[in-house]
Records
---
Amino acid sequence: MMLVRAPGVYRAQHDTRLLMHALSQARIPHGGHVLDIGTGTGALAVAAARHGARTITAVDVSRRAVATAWLNCRLRGLTVRALHGDFEAILGTDRFDLVLANPPYVPAPGSAADRRARAWNAGEKGRAILDRLCAMMPGLLEPGGVALTVHSCLCHPDATVAQLRDGGLEVAIVARSSVPFGPIMRELTPWLTSTGLIEPGQNREDLVVIRADKPRP
């Protein structure tokens, strides 16, 4: 998928492709309302439209990402509601049939002081965004709705599964892939090793897609 990408916008990578694969296998009904959290270039928004989404809402904390996602959708004749800001603050009571989430999940020391790091820096445990997303997810879904969330196994998928189940959702890991460390992970390797998050000499990480279904009444 060829996409316009403004400088500083998160590039679609292994995690995006894994989430696209999970979407293609999810048998999502046509005509649904879709939310893309952490939209970046809008790659997942475009993929959702190809799978029959009726309306698309794309959210990102980066203004450049929001503009990029809007442009990539418009270039394909797609209508998208592109929103700038934190998902927890701007979505209100909106409900969706499908939620796609590729949130920041890389464990890193300190906070994302550099604006570019907001796309990946998720605090020392990698769950600064994931925990908030899991808490909000049941309220984002319509009955019968589905959420697909991707993140690294360094961020404890079992915690994501447990939180989503505690919210009344039916949860399973539906995709997994082992990928080599990219530039950010290679730069963080000494810190990740010192904290015990990776083994000495480790140069790959497992990514997972977690599916959560909201039961109908």
---
Amino acid sequence: MRQLVREAPAALPAALRAPLAMTAALATAVLVALGILHFHDSGLTGIDAAILPSVDGVGPPWRYVALVFDFGGEPVGSTILVAVLAVVCFLARRVRTAVLTVLGVVVTVAVTTLVKPIVGRTIHGEFLSYPSGHTALATALAVVIALLLADRLGLGRAAAVVLVLGLAVVAGVAMGWAEVALGAHYPTDAVGGFCAALAAVPATAWLVDRVAERL
């Protein structure tokens, strides 16, 4: 098993290390900045005031779509998604990426879970909301899928970066919209969750590769 992990393709392709490191640094800065801006503040200002009233409380059929997305971020739904992706990676002989699928999600969710009580932002007067764990999880899975595809397709740096960030944005926007539409989060909570994943997954991928190379 050690040999299988050591010889498996990198979880973070070499061409993506520098650009995703810069992306992670920027995402961390935005995550911290928004956390400071909304520190123990649950009021509607800026982008939240502009977007929330038009999205919150969406009715059928879009509400059903939002509920489907939301299920993907719940314990049962997320476990299924992570398990399926990890198995696909393993069958494709991307063992490091299979490990990243699990660890990347765990680290991302851990970051959002730790940040929430620190920032102390609430919605509906009682639920800690910043950053959005659902949005972070969806973005994390999208980044892992993009890293797998970029490696399998042999994409160059520019195309790979576009793929990773493109899929991350699509997943983040979809889940973020669902969470805001269902009244579970403010729009900036979704942005924070998106940034948490962009910061956590590349760092975790780098760590997986370093450990694998030392086995």
---
Amino acid sequence: MKVKIELDDSLSQNEVVIRCRDIDENILQLKRAAENLSTDTDIVFLKDNVQFFPSLDSILFFETAEHALNAHTADDIFQVKMKLFELENILPQKFVRISKSTIVNVKHIYSVERNITSASLVSFAGTHKQVYASRNYYKLLKLRLVERRFL
């Protein structure tokens, strides 16, 4: 395996690109290791004016509600002072947008009840919380669910 580092002053944040002939377990481990180097410190979680530091792995989904962005864990809700599109740009690949107002952590999805004519119901393991995936985002959700064993 050949490894090289290229400096680029025009980048706003660091970017890692893996070029490979085919994907094998070593490439997937390298990808996971690079993704795990990202920190959760860019996202501030608030509840009653108190700052909390939950792991991103504990977040089930992010959802906008009444001009606020909320982060849901299995048993709690935190407010995030960001826009959904800003959050979407910094979250790791295990998070995917499923509607105009929701981003989910595919690692926590227990089931997706598909409805051809309207939104699909997404349920999470270990909690009663559910969200809806719109038809426009369903293909991407389906793809990420297939990929989640590699995330």
